[in-house]
């Protein structure tokens, strides 16, 4: 089976009108087996699972209308897209909107501006993303800055044996000491990775391969033995070319690489995909899982075999070796915010996680609407409710986030609405006592640190991220891009809320959807005035 290679501006449900691309997703259920042995009710769009990718051109505005045919609310988030003066289109349930009610709809106006590269669109209300509500989003450059002959898309995702929401509900009934492992199946371009697919290469041609991990909690490695990859993009940031032997992608991460085809078609070659999770002990046949695909130069040609090399002997992209093409010096820190990953084990049910003293949980009024309607009090995090985990930022201050993790599982940390500089990574906690590798201390080059929107917080390690708070009025969530978001591993950044109050033009449809779901559209986190938070459940202390 051949990979889907077409670069297209006309995909299902799409009409192109100059610089405005209109897409409609009729979001509904579809019973399907994607792993070859378990059939359950997935979530798709226009009757399709997987949902086809969306292609636009740099500068276009994507008008994405979601019509909800489910029996629960949905939202859609454009992962990696900047939200300048448009935080109400960021698509985070009970942060920037209440959600689209069953039978309702909402149109997201996604202005690509100067951005280009590889992104994706996914549900951001509960765990609907993991049930199929996700699709690649490719923004092509107006003028191609890197020469290549053909564009190839490689979409990687994990797929469980039951809907993630049902799994969460089931796990709430068991002891935290006996939470079962969910060994998932890897999907390559929407198909069970065990079904070998073929990507056609022609001798001497240059290929841009766009690789993204849109899964929930599994990481992927990709290699093409016998070929050289040069990374030219990471999370939508164009990089200086970096030669690597393979790619390693945590959930939410994306890369583009240039691969030069060989001069001879004597052999075909492997395109090796490995799905793994650092929180699962290796079990033969279950984890890690290997999904060999084929680079075909000539039909019927023999496969070129290579001896397997250890990962330590190979070169992988790293945030301290990658370098943005457009240089930007490391900003000094006006303010340091410390976020320590913590957890609470209740004995029965899933653990609660957080990045501070409380576990993040939804409130009764979306944080954006509280910031919009609370006047001067919007500058006080207390009015949003303790479970909202709000941090208020001042306009144009240089912020450093220090995120620490003393646990034996890494976390892909995603910051909405912007990219950040990755300035430092190092050890935290007692890795040796747990038999884990000690994370080496690494400090970024001060003249041009790597910028991206999703970074791995290592087990028993910390990371330092810096950015300028230059999105006045933005309400942006920072969270682990796994099921840990549903367990509270998040904080919310509210930037210069008075600017939001002065400039925001919230779509009427957003307010109507809140009313249809029975949520207030003004007031503090509980929908009351001042500091009266009556009606909110107690926050989970960590």
Structural features:
seven-stranded mixed beta sheet; six-stranded mixed beta sheet; globular; 34 strands; mainly beta; 542 residues
Taking the alpha carbons of the first and last residues, their distance comes to 50 Å
Q: Strand-residue fraction? A: 35-45%
Determine the mean pLDDT: 93
Query: Based on helices, strands and strand pairing, what is the structural class?
Result: mainly beta
Secondary structure tally: strands: 34
> Whole-number radius of gyration?
23 Å
What's the arrangement of strands in the largest beta sheet?
Answer: 12-11-10-14-19-16-17
Approximate helicity band = under 10%
Counting DSSP H or I runs of 4 or more residues, the number of helices is: 4
Q: Main β-sheet: number of strands, strand sense, barrel status?
A: 7 strands, mixed
* Shape by Cα distribution: globular
List segments where confidence is low: pLDDT < 50 over at least 5 consecutive residues. 1-18
Describe the structure.
It is a single chain. This protein is mainly β and 542 residues long. It is 6% helix and 37% strand. The strands form seven sheets. A seven-stranded mixed beta sheet has the order 12-11-10-14-19-16-17, with no helix packed on it. Strands 22, 26, 28, 29, 30 and 32 form a six-stranded mixed beta sheet that branches. A hairpin with a 2-residue loop joins strand 1 (14-17) and strand 2 (20-33). The N and C termini lie far apart (50 Å). 49% of the residues are buried.
């Amino acid at each position: 089976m051949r990979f889907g290679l077409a670069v297209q501006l006309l995909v299902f449900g799409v009409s192109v009108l100059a610089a405005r691309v209109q897409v409609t997703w009729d979001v509904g259920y579809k019973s399907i087996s994607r792993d070859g042995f378990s059939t359950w009710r997935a979530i798709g769009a226009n009757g399709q699972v997987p949902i086809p990718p969306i292609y636009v051109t740099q500068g276009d505005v994507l008008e994405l209308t979601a019509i909800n045919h489910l029996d629960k609310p949905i939202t859609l988030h454009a992962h990696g897209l900047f939200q300048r003066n448009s935080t109400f289109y960021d698509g985070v349930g009970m942060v920037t909107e209440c959600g689209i009610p069953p039978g309702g709809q909402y149109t997201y106006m996604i202005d690509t501006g100067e951005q280009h590269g590889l992104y994706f669109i996914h549900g951001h209300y509960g765990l609907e993303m993991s049930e199929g509500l996700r699709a690649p989003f490719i923004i092509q450059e107006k003028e191609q800055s890197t020469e290549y002959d053909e564009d190839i898309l490689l979409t990687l995702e994990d797929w469980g044996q039951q809907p993630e929401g049902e799994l969460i509900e089931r796990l709430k009934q068991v002891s935290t000491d006996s939470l079962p492992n969910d060994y998932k199946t890897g999907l390559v371009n929407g198909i069970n990775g065990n079904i070998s697919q073929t990507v056609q290469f022609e001798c001497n041609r240059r290929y841009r391969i766009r690789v993204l991990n849109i899964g929930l909690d599994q990481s992927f490695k990709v290699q093409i033995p016998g070929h050289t990859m040069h990374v030219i993009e990471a999370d939508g940031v164009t990089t200086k070319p970096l030669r690597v032997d393979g790619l390693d992608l945590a959930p939410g991460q994306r890369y583009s690489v240039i691969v030069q085809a060989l001069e001879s078609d004597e052999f075909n070659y492997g395109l090796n995909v490995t799905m793994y999770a650092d929180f699962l002990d290796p079990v033969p046949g279950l984890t890690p899982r290997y999904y060999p695909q084929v680079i075909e130069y000539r039909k019927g040609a023999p496969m070129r075999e290579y001896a397997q090399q250890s990962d330590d002997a190979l070169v992988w992209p790293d945030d301290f070796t990658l370098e943005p093409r457009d240089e930007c010096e490391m900003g000094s820190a006006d303010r340091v915010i410390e976020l320590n990953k913590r957890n609470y084990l209740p004995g029965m049910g899933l653990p609660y996680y957080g990045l501070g003293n409380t576990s993040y949980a939804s409130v009764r009024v979306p944080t954006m609407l509280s910031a919009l309607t609370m006047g001067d009090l919007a500058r006080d995090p207390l009015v949003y409710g303790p479970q909202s985990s709000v941090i208020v930022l001042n306009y144009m201050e240089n912020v450093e986030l220090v995120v620490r993790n003393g646990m034996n599982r890494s976390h892909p940390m995603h910051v909405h609405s912007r990219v950040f500089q990755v300035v430092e990574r190092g050890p935290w906690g007692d890795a040796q006592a747990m038999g884990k590798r000690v994370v080496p201390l690494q400090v970024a080059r001060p003249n041009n640190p790597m910028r991206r929107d999703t970074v791995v917080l290592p087990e028993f390690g910390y990371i330092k991220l810096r950015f300028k708070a230059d999105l006045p009025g933005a309400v942006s969530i920072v969270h682990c891009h796994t099921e840990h978001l549903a367990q509270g591993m998040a904080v919310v950044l509210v930037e210069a809320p008075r600017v939001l109050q002065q400039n925001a033009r919230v779509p009427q449809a957003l307010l109507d959807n809140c009313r249809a779901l029975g949520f207030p559209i003004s007031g503090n986190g509980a929908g009351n005035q001042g500091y009266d938070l009556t009606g909110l459940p107690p926050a989970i202390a960590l």
